[in-house]
Design a protein that fits this description.
The protein is an alpha/beta fold. It has seven helices and 13 strands. The chain has helices spanning 23-32, 91-103, 124-138, 152-157, 177-182, 201-209, 225-239, and strands at residues 6-8, 18-20, 40-45, 49-58, 63-72, 82-86, 108-113, 145-146, 150-151, 164-168, 175-176, 189-193, 213-217.
């Protein structure tokens, strides 16, 4: 039996509500999937959970659906919040980081500008579209918050009090990442990964001197920026997140 398409909507969701979908969602259901009257879709958001909806009208640019039953109630957070601070890389790499961070349960994404960041053009609208599509595909009810890019120092100052910073130090000197994460269970955390050229010695020294910062090693090999972000989030999720 085919699985009903799943769409994120910001509108309130409740039984019996007739909802006019936006142009993009309407086009996807009516023209891409070719669903007609009586077709089913699953609509969701973090506030109201996930609902089964049935198509009641198909217009030139709008599809109307009626919400029938709640499939999943909004759930309370089962793990500490994870923030990803990452130096943006070339477009495809940044796209990959945004997609995988969503799949791996990151709550917040913020691009940060370091001294060696080569790519400073960040399209937040594109990042948000990627995170939305990834959430639809991975059964998340919420979307990660995509924040404005900031200089590294400002991004660190903007972290919520009590957030542990996991500094992925490609220059060596950090403790094994699993050892550090074992001490961070139950704490909100931010993972910091750098650009293609790595962090400068000045940045590395400043980060190591910062309170509540945990410099970690991701192993003996130098990882691509995208690989480092995905690897660190995977390990955090396995040790501190909701995988266990």
């Amino acid at each position: 039996m085919p699985v009903s398409p799943r769409l994120y909507v910001e509108s309130p969701l409740a039984g019996g509500v007739l909802l006019d979908l936006g142009e993009e969602a309407s086009n996807y259901l009516a023209r891409v999937l070719r669903l007609g009257l009586g077709g089913e879709a699953r609509l969701f958001n973090a506030r109201d959970g996930e609902w089964l909806a049935r198509i009641e009208a198909v217009g030139a640019r709008r599809v109307s659906v009626r919400l029938e039953s709640q499939l999943r109630a909004p759930g309370a957070a089962t793990a500490p919040a994870l923030t990803l601070l990452f130096a943006p890389v070339k477009k495809d790499g940044t796209d990959l980081i945004a997609e995988k961070a969503t799949e791996l349960g990151a709550a917040v994404l913020r691009p940060v500008f370091t001294e060696r960041t080569q790519t400073r053009a960040v399209r937040l609208d594109r990042m948000r579209k990627i995170t939305l599509e990834a959430a639809e595909q991975t059964e998340r009810l919420d979307l990660p918050e995509v924040l404005e890019p900031m200089a590294l120092s400002h991004a660190l100052a903007a972290l919520r009090p009590g957030t542990a910073l996991v500094f992925c130090d490609e220059g060596g000197g950090g403790e094994p990442v699993l050892d550090a994460l074992a001490r961070l269970k139950g704490r909100d955390a931010a993972i910091l990964t750098g650009p293609e050229g790595g962090f400068t010695e000045f940045e590395r020294s400043a980060l190591k001197a910062r309170p509540d910062t945990f410099p970690v090693s991701l192993g003996p090999r130098i990882l691509r920026a995208e690989t480092a972000a995905i690897s660190a989030m995977t390990l955090w999720q396995a040790v501190c997140g909701d995988w266990g």
